């Protein structure tokens, strides 16, 4: 099977490995031929990245079953080794999940007994409110829900929704957005899920028109008081067996409220991370 890039290739490799649970290392090299073209060190680093905190699979010597973690040993005689899926990979997934910013709230905790507690969590995250703070918090919620609604339609590739929610200007058009998204979706082997990652700046309906550093710009013909803020959606293209993402692409959106009272996109940017 031919792939255009190593992202597509690695996604296919991991799906195949999880299906068969044990694979000759030579077969893995064949499945990862594009990755191999960048050298054995790159191949090894990609395997480490896919290995869910070094717990999803191991490379073992066929006869002895001994675990090997030295690329030089394996590459001297790859036919002597195979890749074996481990069945206790939860630890690695839990470690990968720690990339998110939710932390325990010490002021919101209620113990029930020695083995049970109700705990509150807070997100250790920051965003800037320009203008009235209380209204700004409400705008933040609007931006999150707007991004969630857009994300659902993105997963279905329903681009007519986006075309009706994009303010056409020199750097932002509905057709260009569709083209950019579909090119990235193909490159990454297909986006599977999304999440609204964070809100950046929020511009309140009251006082949000004031000048600030690094502020959002609006297209000609729109007022500064129409700005509402920026929000980031994570697009995920490769997941662990329990849904922890390996590859993320960020979609950054700048949003205004149009004269029809609908939130609309005035600029966007895709960032591969």
Structure description:
With 273 residues, the chain is of the alpha+beta class. The chain is 34% helix and 30% strand. It has nine helices and ten strands. It has helices at 6-20, 25-31, 33-36, 40-50, 71-76, 90-97, 133-155, 159-163, 174-187, and strands at residues 22-24, 57-61, 81-85, 102-113, 116-123, 128-130, 193-203, 227-239, 245-257, 263-272. The protein has a five-stranded mixed beta sheet, covered by helices on one side. Strands 1-3-2 form a three-stranded antiparallel beta sheet. The longest helix has 23 residues, at 133-155. It is globular and about 70 Å long. It starts with 5 loop residues before the first helix and ends with a strand. The mean pLDDT is 91.
Concise structural overview:
With 273 residues, this protein is α+β, with helices and mostly antiparallel strands.
Radius of gyration: 23 Å
Distance between the termini: 26 Å
In the sheet with the most strands, the strands line up as: 6-7-8-9-10
Total number of helices:
9
Number of strands: 10
Secondary structure class reads alpha+beta
Which features characterize this protein?
five-stranded mixed sheet; alpha+beta; 273 residues; three-stranded antiparallel sheet; 9 helices
